[in-house]
């Protein structure tokens, strides 16, 4: 994710609900899946992707040093790794492998890819993940050349990475698509078209993508005959189609055209606890992002009033699934220390702002209006046009207008790809967003809201928060790291920098003949998936 990434899943953004499937009747010679997704691919460029739909495609059609597995990471292109005593130098030996055009994948492909991502000209939103790599921050600030990044190729198949400080989550990063290699020849050949359609890419993973034009709603992943571990790949093909409602997907399921689907509220109630029902925790939080460039939302009392006026219990009942009420930005269950969940370290008084308290909401609201010199406000909420996104908008509109006198809340529901673009361009007032951790550490959430992070779309800023996050990244003492991060998150929540609504747990119905798939933080790995009779 993060994961894993602007991870935009959950029933409130069902535009990203994924559903696994296969043909009902299959044999060992017919290993095809038909797969329904709720949202469009935004890009296949590893330097520019930010969402789980795109990342899931990359995880299956590309490969880096490691692959995520059920229990952590398994070898990808790295056959071995040596770490220096000071923990600052990693030396990777690479296996021989190929791009789908037959060109060898080499250490230089990693060097080119990483330099391209940290280059300010690329405008990669995930470039901040390289902070801690030698000279990465200086490069992104225009103070050093891209060539000074702490990565070099020693021959074709040896890669050396140098850090400025120890990074407790370094290996987790290496399985994330932002750190995958890229074929320089392909990037230069396709220019501005690179990553905008299936044919404008180079692939080195288990599958090759076919048929995505950049805007259509169907495409395929086909087994890659040039993949180094092709003997482990059982599927011949996965066909994808976009369906924006669970009802549509369920109708296909009933007619044996797909083998699995993400469930909405009604379907969850119907199938929970029954055969082929799965609950998949995705390490995500759905929240409201408030654009503080809008003077009304720059007022902390207005933000606090909005949070306190939301009945989260009712909201998740409306949306259904396995979602849980959230009172922290970082998802519960992501990280434990000494037997306790990280979120238990966050200030209880800060968490209290995320309980439904209508009387207190009115007090903050009137105080905020008085400070603004206004008696009423009109605000807009941006959501995806999925069924869940629309339900979220309707529910929040009713709750907020009922509890906050003088508020008129309009709702704009647009296609997922459009919502992403508007959010990234700051063209919103309040945006329904979610984030799924790219790896199992709170920093995957919290770094997003530092003052200079390109993904801080709401422009919330706090200098003490920035200092605490920086401190957490400068030590390998896990207890100190978590203490710094929990103090920072307490500051964030106490100021309503974002408004968490619920933790995302996905409900699924998957036929028993779809085997071997791995779902980790809403990113699907089909390398060893297969279909039984």
Please explain how this structure is put together.
By secondary structure, this protein is of the alpha+beta class. It contains 16 helices and 24 strands. It has helices at 52-61, 107-118, 136-140, 170-173, 184-190, 246-254, 265-271, 300-308, 312-319, 348-351, 358-372, 387-403, 416-424, 443-446, 463-472, 478-494, and strands at residues 18-19, 32-37, 66-69, 72-75, 78-83, 89-94, 151-153, 158-162, 207-210, 218-223, 237-242, 260-262, 277-290, 324-325, 336-337, 340-341, 377-384, 407-414, 430-436, 498-510, 514-515, 518-520, 523-525, 530-531. Strands 12, 13, 14, 17, 18, 19 and 20 form a seven-stranded mixed sheet that branches. Strand 5 and strand 6 form a beta hairpin. Helix 8 (300-308) packs antiparallel against helix 11 (358-372) and helix 15 (463-472) runs antiparallel to helix 16 (478-494). The protein is globular.
- Gap between N and C termini: 33 Å
Report the biggest beta sheet as strand number plus sense, adding barrel if it closes. Answer: 7 strands, mixed
Query: How would you describe the shape?
Result: globular
Oligomer: single chain
List low-pLDDT spans. Answer: 1-28
Proportion in helices: 25-40%
Count helical runs. Answer: 16
Number of strands: 24
> Mean pLDDT across all residues, rounded?
90
- Structural class, by secondary structure, is alpha+beta
Radius of gyration from the CA trace?
Answer: 23 Å
Beta-strand proportion: 15-25%
């Amino acid at each position: 994710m993060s994961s894993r990434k602007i991870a935009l899943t959950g029933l409130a953004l069902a535009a990203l609900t994924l559903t696994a499937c296969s043909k009902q009747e299959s044999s060992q010679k017919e290993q095809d899946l038909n797969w329904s997704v709720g949202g469009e691919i935004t890009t296949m460029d590893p330097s520019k992707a930010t969402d789980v739909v795109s990342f899931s495609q990359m995880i299956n059609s590309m490969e880096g040093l490691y692959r995520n597995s059920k229990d952590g990471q398994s070898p990808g292109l790295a056959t071995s790794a040596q770490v220096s005593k000071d923990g600052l130098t990693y030396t990777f030996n690479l296996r021989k492998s190929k791009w789908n055009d037959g060109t060898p994948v080499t250490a230089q492909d990693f060097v080119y890819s990483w330099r391209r991502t940290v280059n300010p000209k690329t405008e990669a939103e995930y470039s901040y993940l390289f902070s801690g790599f030698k000279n990465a921050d200086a490069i992104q600030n225009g103070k050093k050349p891209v060539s000074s990044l702490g990565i070099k190729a020693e021959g074709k198949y040896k890669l050396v990475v140098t850090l400025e400080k120890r990074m407790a989550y370094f290996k987790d990063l290496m399985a994330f698509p932002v750190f995958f290699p890229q074929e320089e020849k392909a990037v230069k050949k396709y220019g501005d078209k690179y990553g905008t359609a299936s044919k404008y890419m180079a692939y080195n993973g288990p599958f090759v993508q076919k048929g995505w034009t950049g805007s259509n709603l169907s495409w395929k992943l086909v087994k890659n005959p040039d993949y180094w571990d092709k003997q482990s790949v059982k599927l011949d093909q996965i066909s994808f189609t976009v369906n924006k409602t669970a009802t549509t997907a369920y109708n296909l399921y009933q007619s044996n055209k797909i083998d699995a689907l993400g469930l909405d509220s009604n379907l969850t109630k119907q199938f929970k606890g029954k055969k082929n029902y799965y609950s998949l925790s995705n390490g995500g939080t759905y929240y409201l992002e408030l654009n503080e460039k809008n003077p009304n939302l720059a007022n902390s009392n207005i933000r606090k009033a909005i949070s306190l006026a939301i009945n989260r219990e009712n909201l998740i009942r409306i949306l259904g699934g396995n979602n849980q009420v959230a009172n922290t930005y970082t998802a519960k269950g992501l990280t434990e220390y000494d037997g306790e969940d990280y979120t238990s370290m966050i200030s209880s008084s800060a968490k209290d702002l995320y309980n439904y308290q209508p009387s207190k909401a009115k007090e903050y609201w009137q105080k905020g209006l008085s400070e603004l010199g206004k008696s009423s406000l009109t605000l807009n909420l941006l959501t995806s046009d999925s069924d869940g996104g629309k339900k979220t908008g309707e529910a929040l509109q009713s709750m907020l207008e009922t509890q906050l006198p003088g508020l008129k809340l309009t709702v704009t529901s647009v296609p997922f790809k459009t919502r992403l673009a508007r959010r990234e361009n700051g063209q919103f007032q309040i945006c329904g967003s979610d984030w799924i951790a790219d790896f199992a550490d709170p920093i995957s959430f919290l770094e997003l809201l530092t003052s200079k992070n390109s993904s801080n779309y709401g422009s919330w800023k706090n200098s003490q928060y920035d200092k605490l996050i920086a401190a957490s990244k400068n030590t390998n003492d896990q207890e100190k790291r978590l203490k710094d991060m929990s103090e920072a998150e307490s500051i964030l929540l106490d100021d309503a920098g974002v408004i968490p609504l619920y933790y995302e747990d996905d409900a699924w119905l998957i036929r028993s003949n779809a085997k071997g798939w791995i779902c980790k933080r809403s990113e699907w790995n089909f390398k060893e998936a297969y279909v039984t009779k």
